[in-house]
Write a structure and sequence with these properties.
Helix content: 40-55%
Number of domains: 3
Largest sheet: 7 strands, mixed
Number of helices: 19
Strand content: 5-15%
Order of helices and strands: HHHHHHHHHHEEHEHEHEHEHEHHHH
Length: 445
Amino acid sequence: MTLNAYHQNFYRIYTTSGSLLLYRNLLQDSLINKMRGLLFSLSRGESTSKTTGTFYELCHLLIKAAEKKGLSGNLWQEYIIFLIAEDENTFSRTAERESDKINSSLYNAAAHDLYILKEFSGINIPEMAALLEENTPYYLEEFQSITSSTVNNYYHHMLVDFKNSFTGDGFTGNIVNSIARFYKQAGCGKFGYYSAFQWKNSLVGIEYPDPVKLEDLVGCSRQKQLVIKNTEAFINSKPANNLLLYGERGTGKSSTVKALANEYFASSLRLVEVPKHQLPYLPEILRDLRGHAQHFIIFIDDLSFEESETDYKYMKALMEGGVEVPPENVLLYATSNRRHLVQENWSDLEDRGEKHIMDAVQEKLSLSDRFGITITYTSPDQEEYLYIVENLARKSGINISEHELREKALQWEKWHNARSGRTARQFIDHLLGQFNTEYKNSSYS
């Protein structure tokens, strides 16, 4: 290809990439912007220090994206594929919820965009480096990523079929069908990739969610089964209840809820953590969740209210609804150390001007009553505590006699004046850290 032909080709790709319809959000992406700016500069024969700087900035951002998303191989192509997978637009939302309703107009618009993006993803970065008379970055074409804990393995697995179709020589129609299947299976946008979210003026995916699994929780089997049964009914679109997990500190309430997001991610379950001070944002959060194919658990940890606090009324509206009906794909799971979530005082039993004294008391008790199921977590007795310790020691590969392990565990319990699953976990961590060389082994005796 002659130099002039390169210039013409770069300008053509720059122009066509600006005609996206459904996937137009991608034009706001910083890497896409830099690449389009670079294409325009090169089409005009510019090879200034500014153009070279933009080129290396692009390479830098691609490597950062690879680290965050676990991308390997041709990084530019991989990056475009991930942008397509994560984009939320009319086509992706329809495919996620009701793929059978994709009409010919929507299908053709998607084909138009995917044809453009396929060509855009085929930009040869080493050729760009050669035109700029810079060292050829072959490492961007055969990049090996160090897999990060943030990488969602299920999501990557679901993306393989689309990736093969997109990078192959097949018709555009095959690409449209494969990405539609992906959206149906994995979801689109942030709700497709992340398992847990926090509210920061909008719902933001948590990069490093707690990896706890249900099988890691020992000593609360009965409570776990109640939570699992209700959750499985929910994700299968059957009637299910809001849950209140009540009990003493360290008994596994919060860990049970967090483990659900890891256990049922492939079944479309997502967790939205809402601290108590963010309860006024619940109406906005619900609007963001409404209409998506996933099922969401609003998770409020360590919930209780003082007498003067009134934010609990936002929760009551969510659980039983007001004028606006709560979304069918949302449930509320809360944990608390207090059975009655709103503080009661003796003054509630005194007449302070209300015509009916018990109305004030009932208003406070009604919040707990609105949870369909209350599950009580109790501190283990001594044998249950030792059973938890022994199981954790076995899973951690600690090589210590049962007699010595039990003796040390009971001593640890007395030192900390507490007996719970958390205390047992802390004891095991202490053994692993303090006596790693002496006790850590591949077997348990």
